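[job 4471] stage=fold_predict status=RUNNING
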Amino acid sequence: MRIFQTKKSLKILFVATEVAPFVKVGGLGSVIYSLPRALRELGHDARVIIPKYLSVDEGAYKLKIDYKGLDVPTENDNEPAHITCNIKRYDPKREDIDPVTTYFLENQEYFEQRANIYGYADDAVRWTLLCRGTLEFIRRHSYWVPDVIVSSDWQTGLVSNFLKTIYKNDPVLSKIATVFTIHNLYFQAMFDHRFVSEMDFDDGHSPIPAFNSSRLEHINCMRRGIMYSDVINTVSPNYAKEIMTTEYGELLDDLLRERRAVLSGILNGIDYDLWNPETDSNIEAIYNSKHLDLRYKNRVALQERFRLPINKDAFIACVVGRLTKQKGLDLFPHVLETLLNELPIQLIVVGEGSTDFMGFFHDLESKYPDKVATHLKFDSVLPHIVFAGADVVLLPSQFEPCGLVQMEAMRMGTIPIVRKTGGLADSVEDYNPNKESGTGFTFERFDSSALMITLVRAFENFRDKKDWRGLQKRAMAEDFSWISSAKKYAALLRRAIDLHNRY
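[job 4471] inference complete, writing C-alpha cells
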C-alpha cells in the first residue's frame, strides 16, 4: 500500500552493478533492492538498471526486450566505433513484494560471457559501457526520462562525468539531475589509489578516454563521481563527516571538503519483512520485545546447532559477516583467548573472507571446542538463527560506512558491541545504566584493550537480567526501516533537482 504523497512524485533511476534478487554479491545488492521499493511505496517511480550477467535467470523473471540494437559510442580512433547492446526489462506484478521495474544492459562480450560480476582485467571498459549505455538508452528511447539519476560507488561514477561533458547540451539528458552515493570510499577504481605515479594520476578534468585506450584503466571514477554530481551522499551521517578528514578521506578529503555544501549522509535501512522475530520462519521460536522469554528456545537451538554445551548462563557472543581487516578483526588475537579463559563465554563465528582470519578462528575452535564454533562460509539463513539466540555481536571496525549487521542484530534482540565509527556511531547508543538509556556498548580507540574493557562491561551488565531485558527492548524498538531512510532520500533527490535547475 502506498503512503500518501502530497508533493509531485519523482522519476528516479538507480544505476548499479548489482541488485537483489537478480544478482547479489554484497550489501550494495540489498540496498539497490530495498531503497527503490521504499521510494515506490512513498509514491515515486523508482527504477533500476544493471548489466545482464550470465547468472540472471531470464526465464524465471520473464524479461522482455525493451530496446534492440543500442549502439553505444566508444570514442575509439578505429573500430569499433560503437558497441551494440540490447535493453531487457523486468516489470513487477505485485508492487507490495516484487522488485521495482528493472532494466538490463545486455552485451555478450562484456557481461553474459563472464562467470563472475567483478574482477576482470577489462572492468574499466565494462563499467564505462554501463554508464554510457544507460545514458544512450535514455536519450534514444525517451518514453521514460528520469528526473534524477542515482549512481553508486566508483563503477558508476562516470555517469555524472558524461552528463556534464559529452551530453551537457543534449536536449534530453542535460535536464537530468545526479546524485552520487558513496557506499565505501576505500574502493575508487581498478587500481590502488594510494599508490599512483605522478604520470598516472587522474585529476578528473581530462576527457574520459576512449574504450580502447589504456588510459581508461587509470581513471579514478570515484573522484569523478564526486566532482561532477549535483549532490553527493554517503550511507551514514557520521561517515559523511569522517571522509572529510585525512584519517578517513582516502586522499579525497580535500575534494570532499570543497564539495561539503552538497555532501550529506543518510543511514541505510534493513528489510523489516526479512528481519522480523515475530514472523521469521528460519528460527526455532517466534517472539517479540514483550515476550523475550521465548527467546530462550532459540538460544538452546543455537547451542545445539553449533554443538556447544547447553548452558543457560553462558554469554553468547557472535561475529557475523565478512572476515576482513576493515571489520577490526586484528584486535581479536589479543583479546579473545584471555576472555575465553576467564569468562563463561561462547563464541560463534559465521562468515568468510581473509584466509588469515578464517585460519585464526578455525584454530581457536580447535583449541576451545566447548566454547568456540564456526561456519566459515557465506550463509543467508544462519545469521537469523544466530541473532535470534545470541547475546552480543562484535563489530570493532576500523571504519564502517554504514553497516547492516548491527541493525539486523538489534532487530532480533542481540546487543551490538561496536567501535564508535561511521554508521556504527549513528546506529548504536552507548548503554548508560544510570539513565536506563542506550542500545549497545561502544568504544572509541581502535585498540585491543578498549575492546576487552567494553566486552567485560557488557558481560557484567548481562548478569543483571532485568536491566539487560530493558536494553534488548530499546534495541528492538529502534527504527531502521527503509521507509524512514527513503523519506530522507526523497528530500535529497529534490535538492539535487533544485540545484541542477538552478545552475
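[job 4471] summary: Confidence is low (pLDDT under 50) at residues 1-5.
[job 4471] exit 0
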